[in-house]
Amino acid sequence: MKFTRRYTTNWHDTGIDRAVRASRLLVYMQETSSAHIASSGYSLGNLRSDRNLAFILSKISLYIYMPLRAYEEIDVQTWTCASKGFSFIRCFRILRGEEIIAEAHTVWALVDIRNKTICRIEDCGFEFEDEEPLTLDLPKRFKLPDDRELCELGTKKILYSDIDNNMHMNNTRYPDMLCDHMPIDKIEKIKGMTLSFLREAAFEDTVSINGCEKDGIYYFRTFNTAGDVCLEAQVVLKEE
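Structure (tokenized):
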């Protein structure tokens, strides 16, 4: 069953083109998922404090159909999909009236924060009425160009402003980090992105950002201080 929450967008959600940033779309989506879970009577905070469990985002595919502006009223829908084993699937849709602004398909892992082991989804204790998952016009899997084609674009120190309760960079911060390393005139042309999270970017870690553009798609791979891959991502632009 779909769960819906209504919001009014803010001026500080928008970028240079006066459209709501991809990062802020993710914030509205994830606030809605948190409210959905809380509606079951057992919040994410309870899950962590009482059972030492947390949901960690593994992968997100976000598709943006049209721009959203400041001070517009939106409905954000979320629903769970049939999940088993170690992958928890949740989808999102942002609506302005009857218009679909954006959709997202996400995969989460349930992690025991004491020893960082992955738990079976059945252990979370939440029971929702599942619906069909979204099929987005983005590749379910993507292959980055050869490492020789990826250039080092810069580094980012993970600081207080980046982290969440898990002491690592919150996933809603990643789109802005990637956009920081794209030509500014291309950002308003983004129609979709897929982010695959492989390892956390922890507080006070220094992340190196590598990437390239190929056939109208921007590819990224980031590494933590230890040299482990944290993120692989693709950002797809609208056709000219």
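The mean pLDDT is 91. Residues 44 and 50 are 10 Å apart (CA to CA).
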